[in-house]
Structure formats: structure tokens, C-alpha cells
Amino acid sequence: MYDLSTRKRALALVAQGRSLNSVSQETGISRAALRSWHHRLAPLPRKAPPPPGPPADRPAYSYLLGLYLGDGCISAHPRGGYYLRIACSDAWPGLIEQCRQAIGKVRPDVGVYVAQKQGCVMVTSYSRSWPALFPQHGRGKKHERLIALEPWQQAIVDAHPWEFIRGLIHSDGCRITNWTTRLVGGEQKRYEYPRYFLTNLSADIIRLFTAALDQVGVEWKQANARNISVARKASVALMDVHVGPKC
Fold first, then answer.
1. Which helix (H) or strand (E) holds 112?
2. How far apart are CA 135 and CA 51, in angstroms?
3. Do 116 and 230 belong together in one domain?
4. pLDDT at 53
5. Backbone angles phi and psi of 160, in degrees to 5
6. For position 31, what pLDDT does the model report?
7. Considering the domain boundaries, does residue 52 fall inside one?
């Protein structure tokens, strides 16, 4: 039997890279005992998380990808694993519920909860697989780094473009009613018309959004570097069918 201080001293010698034979000769402790102590006390190597596999629900993933690119983030937990957080305004309880449902469909094996913040909630879920499912995760703000879809993500967006568009509109977009006046028969008349807007600082995310609009036949205009407008009557009607206002 050896006391704790003797064991610690012997293991410290082993940790220096010395052979079990030399430590045994110096301390008088058998190599078998040293080997046993070393294996029992050495920290186990951390296993890499298993590949998450394809999203369980691809339309839900396309929608969730749009939400993530707009108002989502991934952060590491100090003890391993990651949190996916999607910021949703308190003004849109329907959006909060849709976000919760989408996360649950994409990863049915994880929990989803809501954390209340000032003026918004964070729809949050913990999993080791979030960075693999959202490889756009990285340091810094999204508009300050490259945002490009992996081929498997692009295939999902191409198969479910409306879900992706709806996710982006629900995060960084809106449906509003504009108005203007026209002179008709010498009289000024007011006209109202709906339009959709997306606002995002990332040129890459803007390109992903407009590419999806092109795919489904929606006409759009770039108001400025960060704003996309959909105002044509037929295109707004198409957006109303597949996207609609937030609720």
C-alpha cells in the first residue's frame, strides 16, 4: 500500500515522459502498480460527436436554415455541446411556435425551450450536432464573414425554396402596406399596395435569398445594398400564398 503523496509523485514522474522502468527503479514501486495507477487516473479522451446524419425533416430544415441565417446563432457550452438560439420578437407568438416546431422536426431527439429576453425570446436547443447541421457557424458577425451553403444544404433549399424564403422573411423580413397618391381627373387619390421586404447586412445572404426568389418566379428589386423589395402585384400574390405576413 502506498499513500496518496507517493502515488502523486510517481505519476508526476510518469507524466514527465519517463519510462515505467526508470520510475520503478527510483521509487521502488512495481511497474504493474504504476501502469494501473496511470490508466485509472489518466483522463479519458473525448470522443468526437457522431455525424448527425441528414435532417429528419428537410422542409423544416430549409425553413430553420432561413431563420438561422437571419436571426440565429450557435454557441459552445463550456462542458461540451452547443446551443442553437433563434431570436424571435414577442410581437409574433405564431412565429415563436413555428420556430419551436421546426427545431423539433429537424432534430426530434433534442429538447427545445424558450428563454425570455427584453422584447424578444430566444428559442433554444442543445445538441452536439448543431455546428454540423449549420456549418455557417463561425466567429464574428455573419455579414463580416463568408456565408455559403454546403452542397447538401443547397440541394435541400433547391427542393424546398419556399420554406427557405419564408424562414428568411420571418426572421429579417416583413410584409407591409405602402401608399401613394395619383392625380385622377384633376383629383388626388390615395392608393395602397402591399409589398415584402428583406433587410440583411450580408451580401451573401442577400444572394441566397434572391436566388431562391428567382427559382420560384418572384420578381424583386434591390432597393439598396441591404434591402430587397418585392412589389409587383403577381409576385406579392405568390408570396402571400407561400409566405404570408408574420403572426
1. none
2. 13
3. yes
4. 72
5. -135, 65
6. 83
7. no
Structural domain boundaries enclosing 21: 4-41
Instruction: Evaluate if residue 47 carries a pLDDT over 60.
Output: no
- Cα–Cα distances in angstroms (integers) from residue 223 to residues 200, 218, 229, in the given order: 12, 16, 6
What pLDDT, on the 0 to 100 scale, is given for residue 68? Answer: 97
Poorest-pLDDT segment among 19-28, 162-171, 198-207: 19-28
Residue 175, amino acid: R
- Residue 28 in any domain: the answer is yes
Q: Which among 123, 125, 133 is positioned nearest to 56, based on CA atoms?
A: 133
Do 24 and 84 belong together in one domain?
no
- Judge whether residue 187 has pLDDT over 70: yes
Split into its structural domains, the chain has a count of 2
Best CA proximity match to 84, nearest among 45, 120, 123: 123
**What is the chain's Cα-based Rg?**
28
Q: Which of 182, 161, 176 is nearest to 227 (CA)?
A: 176
Q: Specify the amino acid at residue 245.
A: P
Instruction: Examine residue 140 and state whether it is found in any structural domain, yes or no.
Output: yes
Average pLDDT, whole number, for the chain? 88
Largest CA distance in the chain: 110
Tell me if the pTM is above 0.90: no
Tell me, what CATH number does 236's domain have? 3.10.28.10
- Whether residue 122 lies inside any domain: the answer is yes
Residue 29 sits in the same domain as residue 85: no
